[in-house]
User: Fold this.
Amino acid sequence: MNLFEGINENDKDAMLKCLDIKEKSYEKGDTIFRRGGYLSSVGVVQNGSVHMVKDDFWGNRSILGEASPGQMFGEVYACMPGKKLEVDVIAAEKTDVLFLDMQRILTVCSSACEFHTRLIHNLLTILAEKNLMLTHKIEHMAQKNTRDKLLSYLSMEAEKSGSAEFRIPFNRQQLADYLSVDRSAMSRELSHMKEEGILEYQRNRFRLISPRISS
Assistant:
């Protein structure tokens, strides 16, 4: 779901003015939002992608989420102005971001802009989708070993794409961080599954192979 989905092209100029939208560009590795801060704006990725990451006391990193073009980030904290940000939001590549003031989204203006109702509807849908994504991540993490975590994640990505061939939004280290597993152990497991004919892959492209059923 895109925050601006269903909004008429003719309304976009009025929306930009009403919501006081600002745009900013980032290089790969730049911090967009820093842990410990407070948010009043939500970010929408125009080009590139961002990762929501959290480092523990010893510097071990976990990727809690990812946002690609058209997707939003920071909305939970922007809806809770007094809540400190518990993650860092980092540009995963060269990225352009639109920033929108959350209070302007949630408060229908005096001119009763037609797009405002649609915008709020989209926001609620996005929050529901992200809650579902978090549930899926918990399902992956609940698996007993690295292989099962990988299979759980890759199976979900295949289902999302509607095909046994698909691309994931992570490189190897990022995938290991997302699943909270050791990168070397994960790479070995991927190699084993490839040798066993369970899947094929090249960089971040994967193809799952259905087992043959003997007659």
About this structure: The chain is about 40% helix and 25% strand. The first strand starts at residue 22 and ends at 26.
